[in-house]
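Quick entry, no commentary yet.
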Amino acid sequence: MRTATRRWTQRILILSLVAFVGIGVWSPSLSSAADDMEWETILTYQLKVDEGTVNLVSDVEITNKKGNRRDGNSIIQYYFDRIWIYVPEEAENLAVTSSGKELEYTVEEEVAKEDDIVGLDIIEIRFGKRLFYNRSIEIRVEYDLPGDDPRSESLFRVNPAYASFSVISWGDPGHIEVNVILDDQFDVVAWGSDYDISRDGSNVVYTMTDIEDPEEWFMVFTARNDDELYETDVDLADFDVKLRAWPSDQWWASEIEGAVEEGLPVLHELVGLAWRPEEELEIRESIEPNLLGYGGWYLDGDDVIEIGEFVDRHLVLHEIGHSWFDSDLFVERWITEGLADRYAWEAVRTLHWEGSTEAEPPDDPPARDGILTPPLNDWTVPNADEIGVNRTEEYGYAMSWWLIDAITDEIGVEALSAVIAAADADEIAYRSGGPPEAVDAEDDWRRFLDLAQEIGGSTEAPALFDEYVLGEDESLDERTAARGEYARLEKEAKTWATPLLIRQPMSDWDFVAATTRIEEASSVLDLRDEIETITDELGVRLPPSLEEAYEAADGDFSAATALAQDQLEAAAAVLAAKETVESEPSLLA
């Protein structure tokens, strides 16, 4: 019997590439030969901070599953003697071994050109022996990937204070293990898949198994060690601000420092509120906002701002603005974001800064196109995996800025600052001329609208709110009617102050109670007018007691009503007596 052997020449491809979501994760499909070659893969990523790299070790056990077949009197045997893999062009210290011995490999440049692969090298690895049916070989491919420089297109970073990278997998579904090894000095966030955690000395090992779809599977890791950040204090007498930058990025620290030194005093004067951080404000470099599509963010409650690698001075002042414009001022996100944008832009304009890429408010309201552009009251902090989150975020920021800008253009920055001051001091919007009473500390869009009209003097705000802020089931009709009655009452009251008994339900948006009490107050004012008609004839002044009772009404207007009726009867009696005394006596008299 004759035996023939054939080398199975289909290429089996392994991809090992550190890439990032949004930059382009590519993972190849195994060729048809994968059905005849079994892979057991263990991938180990280890962060090497001192070298500025991520080390990747791919341990693969390859087994030939291409069975022999009979052809007449011959048995044909199939074997493998090489594989091809992709490795990134920037890979360093590439080593290919099997059982501790180096394997020969060559770079197949022509093949890479044929496959139109950019950024990757194709390496042909020769086994040094023939791999027949049910025989296996263990191969280790190891190399280092250097982290990219700040502000590079990718988000792959490695420095002593911060690292961000993603991991992918390749091999047979269900036969893959991925390990990520990080020093325990790092605070780590990992997302994309479930994982187990174990320890190996000073290292923490994240292990992922049961990967059924390696072409689609990936994870993203961010690791931070804030103790390694470069620190400097901003030279400002009235503000304590600390900058903390990556050790390798002095440009970032310099740009942030310049923006804070020039911009913060101007921003503070425009806002008009006391400096909020209890101790100091920390501005920290981090790529994490960039990973989710933001330039930076304010960590509410921590007095910490994190800003990505790209420094825009309007963005810097926007985030500093959130030391005032946060949920303690107004609970709705759109109000605080709009205020932060508007005041940052005002500061940039005052300083005549140029080159701030975001420092221009929208000329027109952004277009609305369905569920991804909701009413502003429905614009909340999203989950990163929400469908259409980028479109909604883009719309929310632009619309918030446009609407706040429209109100500011109407009433002016000083009036807007008066609105903010009243909100910060928890002062009632509906005032009587005396010191404003206090209201509940939690302010929402209703308070902002009241303050914009009562303190700021806006007449356009209700229409803007109705069109862009409220949902379909919300309406300002009841408020509009109540405010009409309130305005009529204030005109009717003349110099008398409107009682808190009415102003409080107006502030609470309890318009049923407010209009009921307005009717009661109007009855008292009607009695007052009758009394004044009589006192005018008598040439005397109305006693102040009725005004005092009206303005101090508590619970209802019964006491003021009773006093008014008594005074009316007394005034009528005096007038009757006066008329009697002054009249010509009759013959009988």
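second:
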Amino acid sequence: SLPGLSHDESARAGSADDFEASTRPVRTAYRQQSLRAPWRAARVDSAVRTGLHLGEGRLLVYAPFMDRAVGSVVRLPGDLELSLNLVHYEAALGVALLQINGGERRLPRKIRWEHGFDYTDTGAQLTIRGYRNGRLTRRTAFSSGMRSDVLIAGQVGASSADRDRLAAAGMDRELPLLQFHDGGPGVAPGDTVYTAAGQIVGIVVRYNASEESGLALPAALLQSYAGLVDRLKPDANRSLVIDPGVQLVDPGGAAARRHYGLAESDSGPRLVSRVAATRVRANERLLRGDLILKWNGKGPDAAGRLSDSRYGSLPMAALAGLAAGRLQPPGTTVRLEVLRERERRRIQIQLRAGDATGAIVPVDFPRPAYLISGGLAFVELSKAYLAERAGDGATAAPRLDYLATTVGVAGPERTRYVVLERVLPLPDAENRALRADLRTDRPLLLQSLNGIAIRNLRHLQALIRTALREKRDLVFNLEEGHLIVLPGKDGGAALQALDRAVRARHGIAFLEGGLSAGSDHPSEPRKSAGK
């Protein structure tokens, strides 16, 4: 810190009264549900974050858990609490717009967005404010300029494996972020960053207490996001953050430059190494192997960076879809000069928003689906599911990890990979033998039922019902040549007995959930017919 300034000292301008009048604590309850055993009751946690009042009872909140939210409330002066309705959740930024469900009720005043703040200034004094246990906190910090990184479920800093998986799902959006230091103890994600004059500079998304440094989403980005929601009025969970949907890398050294026939003036081209699975149609004119020489007429420097009038010099990927620091609307056209097969071309592409649900292996399911039949517990494959298994020390078949990193686009029927997560124990010899044979410490890919390839869990549910109606046995074909046969020639009587045993032994209320027709985000568990 600068001499004579303590962490708890704040500037005279922009008083605590101003802060309290334009921000309010927002408490959100959200589900914490096991992806390995989604039939278990979800634990409900809660978090309190600072809500920035944008006017007309609307609040902007950093809440990367909002896709799993049960409900949100805002505390008003006088300890009055009102419920909030979700207007829009932006997964790429981890922020949500909420509306007070209270008719004409208004907060005293709106926040003041920064005006003319120099994001590249590496010494500007900042104030960080938030709510802890219902009380206001204030900390002094200092700007460290801009950098870029990828946000993953509200966390910054992705491993190379994480980046590959996010790229395959089209969710590896690199963002410009404001760095700050000397925040002291008590700074947390969701706190707000202010200038000395009380204007909003950003929202904290990461803070390292031991290093006393952190990162924040810049206010110019947040203000333009709120404006896009007002203008476009999108579906509550449809992303608005656009990008080219490609992964860019350095093409290499002098030998690579000679191979591509690059001129001296082509200072820092970037090679398209991957086109995201969910963005292929939107980017059919930008191909893997293209070299990007110019972006809207501007050539990158030797490090592959472009210059933005608000954020300064940042990697090309971080500034894609931005103009003067602000988000541009979906469908924005970009002019590119590329080198394709050593031939220079001028092309135009339209930038689209990423779609995590469009991949065969999505990043996550906010409410995961499951199906249990005869003790066989099936789930759909997601990257979060594999991460959860790895976190528990469990292993997955190599095939599943490979599928999670390859490119695959879900078709109109929402193709998904279905895996046998486990065989639930039952007190009979056949069940014990089956569990021993399948080595239940790892999931296995389900390939077909009665010779029909499985498209997703809902498809599996329909095939099981059809087979039982036609009094046919259920023959499950798994990877590595495993075969499981469940009785069905009695119309499902024996299978229903097994299901009753599963329910009684393991206390499972419902044997299927999240399978309602047409739902990309699975619904609450429901009791199936005949089970």
